[in-house]
Amino acid sequence: MHWTTPLSLGLLLVANTSVVLAQPAVDLAGPKWNAHRNLAQNNPPGTPLAQLLAAARPLASSKAVAWKGLDIMIPGHEVLPPGSLITALLHLYQEQTCKADAIAVGHTSSSVYHLSASGTAVYGDHIFILDALWKDKQASTLRSRPTIVVTRPGGSLLLDDGPVNFEMRSFPRFQAGVTYLQFLRFIPESSAYQAIDAFSTLAAGRNNWMIARKDFSGLVLPGFGRSALMPMIHGWLQTCK
Description:
31% strand
């Protein structure tokens, strides 16, 4: 069923640098990551999933529909500044370049999903293998780390009244085998990271970096070529105050 700066001290720019260090074991089910339950990004407004399941299960039975749980898709709702879409997005990414604690290229290897503190969403904690760092304010930690943990809304979970698959069009789930570029914010409570906002994740296409969120996935921005975006971001970094 469906419901519908000039570069400042401590900032590292590393381009086209593959990380080859051995990966340490990370227990994504450990208590260290509990702080992610309370993040605003992982707690969108809405009805608690347990209530939706409790209401949907008898409804499915009354209509003789085989109960397979809920498949919930949340539409995107972010509003861009007025004016040209392309101009607004380029300005947004210039701002994100300056605001980001890290700009990382990589891919995911494993994920664990949890119920948010409000109960309104499922979110995932993901092992993100670093292929390159384009910016790092946490240079003393990330330079020697082959992986980071990134938390992100969306995922699948088995609750008391059945399974729920929770998706947000603004934060599509990471896909295996896909290389991502992320503008990230540091989470001090866990030393993990989260995307700055719904525009902060780009997926690598054949020739371009594409906005990952569904509503903009077909849009190609000028300068966002696979080899051209890093020099553009380097130039933006020179303008950060």
